[in-house]
Design brief:
It is a single chain. This protein has one domain: LmbE-like (Rossmann fold, 3-Layer(aba) Sandwich). It is 35% helix and 23% strand. The chain has a 7-stranded mixed sheet, sandwiched between helices. Strands 6-7 form a two-stranded antiparallel ribbon. α1 packs antiparallel against α5 and α3 crosses α4.
Amino acid sequence: MKNKDSKSVAIIVAHPDDETLWAGGTILNHPDWHCFIMSLCRASDTNRAPKFYNALKILEAEGNMADLDDGPLQIPLDPHIVTSTILEWLPPVRYDWIISHNPYGEYTRHLRHEEVGEAVIRLWSSEKLSAHELWTFAYEDGGKKYLPKPIENAAIYQKLSQPVWGKKYNLITETYGFDKDSFEAQTTPRAESFWQFTNYDDALQWLTYPLLKK
């Protein structure tokens, strides 16, 4: 049982496994957090959905899944559909912080990551999502020159201990079942980084001028 004084954290991701790849070590390092993890895609995926709920148990988190289109063509989604889905599926409580995608993606490029990141920024800055702070994943791949890696000069950067990284890696390879030669397994970061926002205007400004370019 989580301590009643623990932080309340919402993690909003596009896919089951994103929570582990980009923030799994941070979640594991904070067993005192009360985490609610929401995946916007794959609720009807009979392979991935059960694995997501198994991962939640290991991460000691609650969560649920929606089922937005995630087909291989990656047809852009109506932004209203993305924002309304988040509001429908995420418990409407005051969070200490919300963690979600970078609106410029963690690698080149996945449209769903970008759409979710932008939607969360817009919802938070309009106070439709309530949280003291917003964190967005801070990773880059040099325009596909290398596997995604954490940005060391991001606001929050933390190397993971070997035991924590090992548990995170096992979530990817054993719980989610990705082969050790897969993109996911090879990517699994040994450090995690986040951009941190406490001001709505700073977050909104990023939609037209990403921090990565500063």
